[in-house]
Design a protein that fits this description.
mainly alpha
Length: about 110
């Protein structure tokens, strides 16, 4: 329900509901990348007791770097996107109708 309410609020101020995906899509990517990093660290180093990555697990270093970059990129999208959505979702809605329909506070004739 949170996503649908956010989309309705964005429509109320004349914005596309696709702006919700600015925050909703990078969150699972960042979560999966973080879990991947933690899994690699636990498997490659902690499980075998190595202080550095052993030669037969060198390919994990590239995966680790890729996951860390994904985390950084996702954070650069999530933080400003969240602030933008907080500002937009706390705004008063448009008076009258917009391209997404009539305003929710506008009286309807029945």
């Amino acid at each position: 329900p949170t996503i649908s309410v956010a989309i309705r609020r964005l429509h109320d101020i004349g914005k596309s509901g696709l702006w919700v995906s600015l925050v909703q899509i990078p969150v699972p990517v960042a979560l999966l990348a973080t879990l991947l990093v933690l899994g690699i660290l636990a498997y490659g180093m902690g499980y075998y007791g190595y202080s550095e990555v052993p030669p037969h697990l060198r390919w994990l270093e590239k995966v680790l770097i890729t996951a860390a970059v994904l985390d950084g990129v996702a954070a650069l999208i999530i933080i400003p996107g969240s602030l933008l959505q907080i500002i937009w979702l706390s705004r008063k809605g448009d008076t009258g109708s917009n391209k997404y329909g009539a305003g929710p506070r506008q009286a309807t004739s029945q």
